[in-house]
Each structure stands twice: as C-alpha cells, then as structure tokens.
Amino acid sequence: MSADAGTAIIGGGIVGLCLALGLAARGHDVLVLDGRDADMRASQGNFGLVWLQGKGAGYAPYGRWSLAAVQEWAGFARRLQDLSGVDLALRQEGGYEFFTDRAEFDAFGQDLHRQAAALGDGFSFELLSHGDLAQRLPGIGQKVVGASFCPLDGHVNPLRLHVALRRACLASGVRLAADTPVTTLRALDRGYEIAGPDRAIRADRVVLCAGLGAATLGPQLGFRAPIRAQRGELLITERVADPLPFLSSTIRQVDEGGLQIGGTKAESDRDSESTDQMAVLARHAVAVWPQLADIRVLRSWAALRVMTPDGYPIYQRAPDRAGAFLVTCHSGVTLAPLHATRLAAWIDDDPAAPDLEAFDERRFALS
C-alpha cells in the first residue's frame, strides 16, 4: 500500500511551515497536519522579534545558530514575499535591552562579552549608560540605569509571517490539512501511521513540530521530548501617531502603529492573563519611556512558550529507526530562515548540512 505522503509534518505553526517550505524546495512531497483553531499556539501569540543579543551566551552552538539566522533574515523575507505577496514588515535596524536594575545590567553585559568571545567579528554590541541613552533617546526614563544595543536585532509582524508561510507553502506544492489533530503515532514495517479522531494516514517520514503537543506525541516514537510550557503576557495599545524611536525586547511599535508591550515569564500551562503581571508590564514600559503613561491599552493576551530544560532547541532523529524527527524550539521567528534551509538539509541527511549534535536531546541525560 502506498503512503499518503512522502513526509508528514505534524504542526502547522511557524516552525512546521518553515520546515515544510524547505523540504518542498528540496523536491519532497510534503503534507502538513495542523490542529484545531482553538489549540494553544505560540505562533499566534509571540512578540515577533528577530533577536540575537544575549542568545547563547552560555551555549556557543546556540549563539552561532542564532547569528546565522539573523544574518539570513533579509533574504528570507524577500523570498517569502516573492512566493506569497505578503510584506512581513521586517525592520532590522538594531534593538535595545533596557535595565532599571544595576546588578541585572552588569550581569547582562557580562553575558554579551561571553557571547562576543564565542561569535567573533560577526557580533557587535554597545553598553550604554543612562547619560549615553539620554543623548541618543531624549525622553528616556530616569529609572533606566543603562541599556545594551545590538545592530542586528529587529522584528517582523508575526501574524503576517504565519500567513506568508502558509501561502508560500501552497505555492510550493505543500499540502495543508487544517483541523486535523493527531493523537497517535505508530511505526510500521515501512513508514509511519499517523492517526487522530477523524482520520489515519501513512507517511514515509514524519517530523514532529507540534510544540507543546510533542511532549505527549514524542514518546510514542521513542523521543524523550522534555518540553514544558512557559506563559508570556502582552499588552496592546491604541495606535500612536508618532513613531517610537527605538525597538526593545519588551516594547515595540508594530507596523500598524500600536505598541506591543511584553516580557513576562511564568512557569504555567495556562494561557490566561493575570492582572498583576499586566501591571508589571505597564510600569516597566512607563519607566523606560514616560511618554507612554497616557497611552490607552486596548487589549491583552497570554500565550505559552515551548521550552526545553535549558531553553535551547531540540533537533533529534528517532533513536531506534530512520525517518522520524523531533523539532522544537521557542525562538521560531528568529530561527525561521535556518529551519527553511539548513534544517531541511539536515532532515535529508545532506552531506552539506550542519552538524546539529549540540541540539540532540541526549544532552539532558549527559548533563
């Protein structure tokens, strides 16, 4: 009996769609199985950052992987726009990390020096005192003790990114099956059976990109899949006529004009907002940029990040047989260009593919 798909990708978020696009470009028959609209989706609740500073300060392979990703983002955005007709609103003109606590600022500065030592000339940053910031950004809050700046950092509209990926996949011959949750994975003599409440299919290969769902599905194929949820919360303001003169990891102005304020982290598997965390976000934003005090907040939401024990991605081949893969990370926007190219080559076991052993889930057993 022939398979229903050459490669089945479970999960139609940003990670799964990027990989589908990359595999289709390599000539594969790809079917993406996506869940229900009501599923918790990190792809529809993220901050949209293309971010490098601080990433991999304690783990050089992740720092190098992130550097390669941000360097390839401009070309990736052009490729997606050509395929989809969607402008991703990419702006990659540098970003700030603002600090109101001196000890946190000093510690982050040490992280950046470690990151620079690992990345070499490809990475640069500035550490700015309050006085430096006051000259560069008149109106900065008095409570800000300092900031870091990296010229490679930027952001995109994450909802447009998701739409563009879907359109690009369809234009590239990828088949998308919406409202198709998966509950059971089973290895066959040849290929895999993928089953849900409404249907079962066969595929020669299966790639698990199901976010938090991989914690349940992964062990069915022999993966450990040590994944947990971390809740992040966001505020969305009214549109602001004057352009915000900076981008930071916690405050950004989206292309439609409103501000997005975020940055909370809570170890929780609930995607509901909390008023105390919303107040923390608002106070931080006003401390950084006091002009925001009179801006109206229109709505708020919470979303769940997909976290591994050390916060770095997992790229894993099934331990007992060929043709099954686990792919998970919480920086799907930043890493999108690599997932659509180099990771697809790794799935194919291309000799030119990067060595991704550093992201093998066996590192947790070793540590």
Q: In a nutshell, what does this entry contain?
A:
The chain is of the alpha+beta class and 367 residues long.
Describe it for me?
Keywords: Oxidoreductase. This is Glycine/D-amino acid oxidase-like deaminating enzyme. One of its GO terms (molecular function) is oxidoreductase activity. InterPro entries: FAD-dep_OxRdtase (IPR006076), FAD/NAD-bd_sf (IPR036188). Pfam families: DAO. The protein has 367 residues and is of the alpha+beta class. The protein folds into three domains: 5-49 and 159-226 and 310-366, FAD/NAD(P)-binding domain (3-Layer(bba) Sandwich), CATH 3.50.50.60; 95-149, no CATH class; 228-307, D-Amino Acid Oxidase, Chain A, domain 2, CATH 3.30.9.10. It contains ten helices and 17 strands. It has helices at residues 14-25, 60-84, 102-119, 130-136, 158-171, 214-217, 275-288, 336-339, 342-347, 362-366, and strands spanning 5-10, 30-33, 49-50, 95-99, 126-129, 146-150, 154-155, 175-177, 184-187, 192-195, 200-208, 228-239, 251-253, 258-262, 297-307, 314-317, 324-328. The strands form four sheets. Strands 1, 2, 8, 9, 10, 11, 16 and 17 form an eight-stranded mixed sheet that branches. The chain has a four-stranded antiparallel sheet with strand order 13-14-12-15, with helices on one face. Helix 2 packs across helix 5 (158-171). The longest helix is centred in the first third of the chain and has 25 residues, at 60-84. The N and C termini lie far apart (43 Å). The mean pLDDT is 93.
